[in-house]
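Margin note from the TA: students keep mixing up input and output lines. Inputs are the sequences; the output is the structure of the whole complex. Example:
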Amino acid sequence: MRIAVDAMGGDHAPDEIVRGALLYRDSGGVADIILVGREEVVRAALGTAPRPGITVVDARDVVEMHEHPSSELRRRTDTSIGVATELVKRGAADAVVSAGNTGATMASAVLILKRIPGIDRPALCGMLPTVKGTPACLIDAGATMDAEAHNLLQYAQMASRFMERVHGVARPTVGLMSVGEESGKGGRLQHEAHALLSGAADITFFGNIEGRDPLRGTTDIVVCDGFTGNVLAKGMEGVVDVFRDGIRNDIFGGVLGKIAYVIALGGVRKLRGRLDYDEYVSAPLLGVGGVSVVTHGRARANMLRHAIKVAERSVSQGLIGAIQAGQKAGQGAGPGATA
Amino acid sequence: MRIAVDAMGGDHAPDEIVRGALLYRDSGGVADIILVGREEVVRAALGTAPRPGITVVDARDVVEMHEHPSSELRRRTDTSIGVATELVKRGAADAVVSAGNTGATMASAVLILKRIPGIDRPALCGMLPTVKGTPACLIDAGATMDAEAHNLLQYAQMASRFMERVHGVARPTVGLMSVGEESGKGGRLQHEAHALLSGAADITFFGNIEGRDPLRGTTDIVVCDGFTGNVLAKGMEGVVDVFRDGIRNDIFGGVLGKIAYVIALGGVRKLRGRLDYDEYVSAPLLGVGGVSVVTHGRARANMLRHAIKVAERSVSQGLIGAIQAGQKAGQGAGPGATA
């Protein structure tokens, strides 16, 4: 197995990306890694020691984090994310992983790998930590705007296959994000989606959930439209940041705080462990014809290692085939299926 | 001025509600308070000492927190929230405040006080703390599903009048919730709303904001549809709860933790003060023909005191008249204005 990694993508690229690839290999990762980026820069980060299982493919262009990739991305043929995705298309790699510009990673996947037949809109499947200690996923975390009910059903189906195959969850439960638990809650989209999800045989539908539920781990899968998912994920992340800063600077900031920190260290580690999302933060883009995993722009080596692991399991467990088989079996309810 | 308070509404009713009313009066509140609820219960909570400026109005029925008020609410004529809202309608009170069932408070306001002419859909204006220390408001926090762009413009106008009059913010800035700051980001609703907000003369439009921005205090007002606002508010609150529990139980839980707590107490208070939202958590329902303020179901006396204060300022500063005047001046862009 070979996994192409965008070595230039992310706030800490290329050093932390290259370190993440090494960490993946050193911790027993079975896939060979293809680092894609400016060759001299990537090789400098790799160092001179021999690195079995790691190769470098040159790409001269980089989509920067702050860029807003649009149609012009089609004309840029030598970006690290574009070249890495092309490797998957040509069969020279089995998956692509990037901590870079999410829009560019998604656009590359859709343009180059194309959608899976029957899937109308791709969706970003964002992983979240929960207070139960089990991971949950939020789909769609922002790939598609103006989703319709049949899209939400496909999200539920794709995420179910992902949680079964990649995270080993048997019969993962699906919650529909709404403003109350009764089936009548929400707007037109939620009413229609509730009916479709209730009738689907290939998912375990829990019912409506609310904004507090993802973190509580009420269901394994949280389904919502990409606008809501993006706003919710960023909103929750914003609160996490405020508390992290608050604990660091307010509670443990001054001289007394530093003493208290040493005394409370066990508890701090407990809370940190509970909310550590390095393992979870990778978000596969589901619905495209290949494995494409996005991870956080802030990703450092350990987070990247886990993202590569998610890509590896997606390949070894046949995720794409499982999603395709579901669509072929007519379990998908796209406009084609309902017409 | 007289403010009707639903004495039976909220997790800690009637004791904390009654205490909140007393606290309001004792801290210099100028409005007389009318406590509405089962008279014998309310009087027991009030105690036997004379309480100038506080009267009790009997109502035998209560909408419980877990009830889902629907059309049947019309038939229940003796609920505490219904009777309190009727007092405003009849001119026997100038505002109504409730920590009870939000759906029932909103339904009572819409049914009894009616919408302000020109306002198509009412909106809940939820207050949020920000890291800047200034309050911000999120409108609509969940009153209306399936909002359209002209509704979002009216939310921005109503919240601008609210922040000017009640919170004394000159030229409050309005951010449109989206998935990126460029004007092209988001779905159809956001594109249309961006165009309307950009063209409105009676608001100070900042542009698009993202899920992280409300807590950062990027703008004084956050405008979004009620579905998104409800999910975002509950999602953020869920994270706050997890951290509060984590700080209390994980960091400061054990014997060492308790020692650390004493040492770090100054810092803990600093963080708590930064995130204290007692002052902010009241959410007026804007767009109805009277002052109706909802506060958190968990509200205790201090939070209720602040909610009464918000109602008092809304009345004394002529909030309803300011919203009506804006609509009459044709600054509103309802379907009538654009047709």
